[in-house]
């Protein structure tokens, strides 16, 4: 943690307003809360503003959100400076790379990734590279320790990295064709490297006669995520999702 | 009531009490930093830890309710211990944490000697530090002209943040960043705009927020403390004047639950440097276009010569805004003896008359009574500018909910939400007749207040508007058995006292604006009256303290004493008589005003029959026994309001109400002499150009 300040004035855009689409989304977000409690939408609005601004929050965006929610500007600034996922200074145009620096990742070689960041992007975190395309920061646990070391870029994680594969990821972003997210080695999500090591006996998956419908084993992830027959028995009707929830759209 | 055992002593306390309050009720001392009676509970300093029997950990007593405690296994009352080794250790631990990052700069810290952290470290801390690491460094912030910051010292109790948000109603302070890096600041270090911001200095338990004008000026133990009363507005806030030698070093609030709780406005607090500059310290006589220093006898001789040469009806006297009751009485007495009828204490042209009865010109609901009110109609007033601390009381009531507020007059940010009803008398008439929807809300209320400001009264048709407002109060049930909601908010400290004494024109006499008109008078006495422009022609005798408007116009200047330099009575807008105590002596040859009038009367051949302040008071109390009853509000006579309501007072002008106070910081000669007030005024103008332009 370090003291976080808004970006200096020459980096700040002169104005900010939500795009029509984001504005409609934001108004829907505000409507989720009872009247007088619209401040509760502050984090989601700030987040949307950050996405609209290319990954960071300018001063004008903070003020615009404050005005929209009827909050004092200092109250929104408090939120924006409290949560470190709100970035207060400009980030790389193509990617802002968040490198996990927590123990499992460091044990598995995150320091090599930092070295890559140092020479490919900038010596210091939160600084934009010379070409303006990249920036990086060290973050706390990104939650996939089994795939350590890893980085988070935008909504995608890249796991099981080495210095070389990390460079390839950066190259990919530089060229505009990033590699497939997920493990960057021969591995299916967090499954063992090189394929399964247990439950490999094919007879386990042979068709077994059963009382009712013959049960197929889950062979693909998509199947495995579907609930089995027993789980599909509902005593009460399944609640419908709220119709006006536009955030799912 | 809930039973509780505190340190072996069984007590009964209301169940909504916190443990901290319960412990205090039982006589136990609980140290605290973040807890403050008048602010919301934060529970973040952890200094108030106590042992709650049955709880495995110590609990923060400020944030733990009595009703949250569980009884013992056999149904015995919950037990709290405040002096066990566990509590002692908890206090030591918390103190040690707080001091990790607190700089050891007490010798150069302005809070030294009156610092909660210092005192509690002595009482609850450990003797030595175990920390060798570097301390956290925090940038100092600019948060305005009055509050100096030294943010290394901040222990993040957030009292200042809560005060600004809750009491002042101007949410400008906040805590940015988090954890060790948490910092208190305003938004991008802009200046605070609250007129109550000086109070955060008192609230700060450490030296992080200190008074900028008072920086490095004195140590608390060098100062002589005098309990007194403020005269900057008509509220009469309780203050403590701290002096070193004959110089006033600072002014702090005192607790008076009935008036100011424990807040004072920035003008009250920081007018101090105005008491030192522009002072009149000897008599002056005008010779040609210049004023030359003169002796008292020369000055008196000049006045006596002039007064002796003109007819009585060509003499007048106007009393100023800061005068005490004693000198008003002496002035009135002198003028009566000189058979002068032209006397007035209402520079702004207010129509209020003692003859209407006292209830017609006082704040009958009382300041503390605002908290019992359930509806408020503000007529021609901007309480935030005219009486900041009273405005904070209205805000306090508004925060409690179920308090409709309507405003007729100039629209402004009053720090609470109100319904804007209209700009002038038309709207008031509509409400009085019951046609306006807001009238219904007032009618439904049990204890409505009709707050009438000077914007409504100080105008040529003020009498008619006063009658209209009284009619509104009577019609809508604000005046009834056990409740009188007709409340006049004055803007100046001397007004109610002046009206009580009858400083209004006698039969055939002229009121203040007429006296100031060209050719009206030959001799005019101004007792600290600086808010009125006296036309050329009259021979003006100015008795006052500062080289301000009155002194510039004067032909003879008699130097008087400011409110910290004399003992006297003052009556606030509620009609509460309070005592101002002398904290120092007037500069140079200046004298107390009543003594000047007494000496002058001798020269004019009508010697006033009192040689000391005590004799004067005896005469005063004989004539006005009510003024002898200090610190109480006499019950008002509701009949006065009814009679005022029935008064046929002429036509009402439809012009909108205009507040008489355009600049909160510069309302009297002392404030105008103060560089600090000038700076605040400039900051306020810059912060709110839109409002200023209205």
Summed up, what is this model?
The complex is a heterodimer of chains A (249) and B (694). By secondary structure, chain A is α/β, with parallel strands linked by helices.
Q: Which radius of gyration of chain A do the C-alpha atoms yield? A: 23 Å
Shape of chain B, please?
Answer: globular
Biggest beta sheet attributes of chain B: 7 strands, mixed
| Architecture per CATH nomenclature, i.e. the level-2 architecture of the domain at 95-182 in chain A | 3-Layer(aba) Sandwich
* Large-scale geometry of chain A: flat
Report the sheet-strand fraction of chain B.
15-25%
Sheet with most strands of chain A: 5 strands, mixed
Derived from helix and strand composition plus strand pairing, the structural class of chain B reads alpha/beta
Summarize model confidence as the mean pLDDT of chain B. Answer: 94
Provide an overview of this structure:
The complex is a heterodimer of chains A (249) and B (694). Chain A is α/β, with parallel strands linked by helices and 249 residues long. Chain A has helices at residues 20-31, 42-52, 59-69, 73-82, 103-107, 110-120, 163-175, 221-224, and strands spanning 95-100, 134-139, 151-153, 156-159, 182-183. In chain A, strands 2-1-3-4-5 form a five-stranded mixed β-sheet, with helices on one face. In chain A, helix 2 (42-52) runs antiparallel to helix 3 (59-69) and helix 3 (59-69) crosses helix 4. The mean pLDDT of chain A is 88. Chain B has 694 residues and is of the alpha/beta class. Chain B is globular and about 90 Å long. The model of chain B is unreliable at 690-694 (pLDDT under 50). The chains are: A alpha/beta (249), B alpha/beta (694). Chain A binds chain B through residues 1-4, 6, 59, 72-75, 77-78, 81-82, and chain B through 171-181, 183, 185-188.
């Amino acid at each position: 943690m370090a003291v976080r300040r808004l970006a200096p004035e020459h980096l700040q855009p002169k104005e900010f307003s939500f795009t029509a689409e984001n504005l409609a989304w934001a108004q829907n977000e505000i409507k989720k809360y009872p009247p007088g409690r619209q401040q509760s939408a502050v984090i989601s609005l700030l987040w949307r503003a950050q996405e609209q601004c290319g990954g960071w929050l300018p001063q004008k965006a903070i003020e615009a959100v404050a005005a929209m929610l009827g909050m004092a500007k200092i109250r929104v600034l408090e939120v924006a400076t409290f949560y470190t996922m709100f970035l207060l200074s400009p980030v790389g145009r193509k990617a802002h790379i968040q490198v996990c620096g927590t123990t499992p990742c460091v044990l598995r070689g995150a320091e090599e990734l930092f070295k890559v960041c140092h020479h490919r992007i900038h010596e210091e975190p939160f600084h934009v590279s010379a070409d303006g395309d990249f920036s990086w920061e060290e973050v706390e646990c990104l939650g996939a320790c089994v795939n350590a070391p890893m980085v988070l870029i935008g909504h995608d994680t890249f796991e099981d990295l080495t210095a070389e594969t990390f460079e390839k990821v950066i190259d990919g972003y530089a060229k505009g064709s990033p590699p497939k997210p997920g493990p960057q080695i021969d591995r299916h999500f967090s499954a063992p490297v090189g394929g399964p090591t247990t439950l490999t006996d094919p007879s386990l998956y042979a068709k077994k006669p059963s009382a009712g419908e013959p049960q197929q084993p889950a062979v693909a992830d998509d199947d495995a995520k579907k609930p089995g027959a027993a789980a599909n028995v509902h005593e009460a009707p399944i609640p419908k999702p709220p119709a006006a929830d536009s955030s799912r759209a | 009531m809930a039973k509780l055992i505190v340190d072996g002593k069984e007590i009964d306390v209301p169940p909504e009490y916190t443990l901290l309050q319960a412990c205090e009720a039982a006589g136990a001392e609980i140290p605290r930093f973040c807890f403050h009676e008048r602010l919301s509970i934060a529970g973040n300093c952890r200094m108030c830890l106590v042992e709650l029997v049955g709880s495995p950990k110590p609990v923060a007593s400020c944030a733990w309710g009595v009703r949250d405690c569980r009884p013992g296994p056999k149904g015995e009352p919950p037990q709290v211990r405040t002096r066990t080794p566990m509590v002692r250790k908890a206090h030591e631990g918390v103190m040690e944490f707080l001091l990790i990052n607190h700089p050891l700069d007490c010798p150069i810290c302005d809070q030294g000697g009156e610092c909660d952290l210092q005192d509690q470290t002595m009482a609850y801390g450990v003797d030595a530090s175990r920390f060798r690491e570097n301390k956290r460094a925090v940038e100092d912030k600019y948060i305005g002209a009055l509050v100096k910051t030294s943010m290394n010292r901040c222990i993040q109790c957030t009292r200042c943040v809560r005060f600004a948000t809750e009491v002042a109603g101007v949410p400008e302070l906040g805590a940015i960043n988090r954890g060790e890096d948490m910092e208190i600041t305003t938004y991008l270090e802009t200046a605070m705009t609250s007129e109550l911001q000086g109070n955060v200095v008192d609230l700060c338990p450490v030296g992080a927020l200190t008074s900028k004008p008072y920086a490095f000026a004195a140590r608390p133990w060098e100062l002589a403390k005098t309990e007194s009363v403020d005269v900057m507005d008509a509220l009469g806030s309780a203050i403590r004047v701290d002096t070193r030698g004959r110089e006033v070093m600072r002014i702090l609030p005192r607790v008076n639950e009935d008036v100011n709780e424990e807040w004072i406005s920035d003008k009250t607090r920081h007018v101090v440097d105005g008491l030192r500059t522009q002072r009149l310290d000897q008599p002056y006589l005008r010779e040609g276009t210049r004023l030359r220093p003169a002796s008292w006898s020369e000055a008196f001789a000049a006045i006596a010569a002039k007064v002796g040469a003109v007819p009585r009806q060509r003499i007048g006297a106007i009393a100023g805004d800061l005068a005490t009751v004693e000198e008003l009485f002496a002035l009135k007495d002198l003028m009566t003896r000189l058979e002068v009828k032209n006397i007035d204490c209402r520079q702004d042209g207010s129509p209020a008359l003692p003859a209407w009865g006292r209830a017609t010109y006082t704040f009958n609901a009382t300041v503390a009574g605002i908290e019992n009110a359930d509806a408020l109609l503000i007529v021609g007033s901007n309480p935030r500018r005219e009486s900041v601390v009273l405005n904070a009381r209205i805000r306090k009531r508004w925060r409690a909910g179920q308090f409709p507020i309507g405003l007729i007059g100039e629209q402004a940010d009053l720090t609470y939400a109100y319904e804007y009803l209209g700009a002038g008398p038309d709207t008031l008439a509509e409400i009085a007749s019951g046609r306006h929807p807001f009238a219904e809300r007032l009618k439904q209320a049990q204890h409505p207040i009709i707050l009438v400001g000077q914007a409504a009264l100080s105008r040529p048709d003020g009498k008619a508007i006063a009658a209209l407002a009284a009619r509104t109060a009577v019609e809508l049930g604000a005046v009834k058995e056990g409740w009188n909601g007709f409340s006049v908010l004055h803007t100046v400290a001397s007004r109610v006292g002046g009206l009580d004494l009858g400083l209004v024109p006698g039969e055939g006499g002229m009121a203040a604006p007429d006296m100031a008109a060209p050719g009206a008078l030959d001799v005019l006495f101004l007792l600290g009256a600086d808010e009125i422009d006296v036309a050329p022609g009259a021979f003006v005798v100015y008795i006052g303290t500062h080289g301000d408007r009155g002194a510039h116009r004067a032909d003879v200047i008699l130097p008087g004493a400011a409110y910290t330099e004399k003992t006297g009575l003052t009556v606030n807008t509620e009609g509460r008589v309070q005592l101002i105590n002398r904290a120092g002596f007037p500069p140079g040859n200046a004298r107390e005003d009543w003594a000047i009038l007494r000496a002058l009367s001798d020269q004019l051949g009508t010697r006033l029959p009192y040689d000391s302040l005590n004799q004067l008071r005896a005469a005063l109390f004989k004539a006005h026994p009510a003024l002898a009853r200090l610190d109480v509000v006499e019950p008002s006579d509701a009949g006065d309001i009814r009679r005022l309501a029935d008064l046929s007072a002429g036509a009402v002008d439809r012009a909108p109400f205009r507040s008489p106070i355009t600049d909160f910081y510069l309302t009297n000669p002392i404030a105008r002499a103060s560089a600090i007030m000038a700076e605040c005024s400039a900051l306020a103008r810059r912060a709110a150009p839109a409002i200023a332009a209205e």
